[in-house]
Amino acid sequence: MTNPLEELLALQERDLALDRLQLRRDTLPARAALSRTHAQHAALGARRADTQVKRDEVAREEQRLDDEARSLEAKAKEVDAKMYSGEISSPRELQAMQADVESLQRHQRDVENRELEAMEQREPLDAELADFDTQLAALRDEGLGLQANLAESEAEIDAEMVVERGARDTIAAGIDPALVAAYAARRAQAGGTGASGVARLVGGTCQGCHLSIPSTEVERIKKAPEGTLAYCDNCGCILVP
Fold first, then answer.
1. In contact, 75 and 104? CB cutoff 8 Å
2. Judging by beta carbons within 10 Å of its beta carbon (0-12, 13-18, 19+), is residue 231 exposed, middle or buried?
3. Are 79 and 146 within 8 A, CB to CB?
4. Which residues are paired to 231 by β-bridges?
5. pLDDT digits (tens, 9 = 90+) for 87-128
6. 145-161 pLDDT, tens per residue?
7. Is 111 exposed, middle or buried (0-12, 13-18, 19+ CB in 10 A)?
């Protein structure tokens, strides 16, 4: 007959293999690289958004000044046209209108100069936005490549895990469910992933924690009836004598 405790050790080997596969899956280089790429993309996107706000403020001011300059130009032309229409004959009134035209034109030139300054402020911001877009596009492409690489690696590991889990379930099916439950509880108590719930007793040393057990306890375990469960007082593993 197969010793149930020996089967429990075989079951644990499968569980540990599954843990190693899961760890490989969780720590794939492409996963960390993808996370870094996403973080870089988010940070760059935030910087671009700030620049966009600045650029839009300058562009709005540039447009406002352009509208004002056009309005002043139209007013000056309107007064100038009225001056030469023949409707006005009073020299004093004509002189006042000429002064208005000159004032409007001076104001227009001042506004156009401010518009030019706004345009000069906007152009480097436009260039900066274009540079951000180039960098963001490169990060998106890099992310897509990493995502594809990650998916491929995950699929390979998942396939291995399916095989390993099938072998594990086959072993578990041949063991008393109460024993499997006791093993699972000890393993969870020890920390779960990568931890041991059962360990071989070699001489007076538990192979789970590699600590010595009193000789009297070792003797008692070895003389106990078959099926009696013994536990390591140090790590709590089910002991296999």
1. yes
2. middle
3. no
4. 238
5. 888 888 888 989 999 999 999 999 999 999 999 999 999 999
6. 999 999 999 999 999 99
7. buried
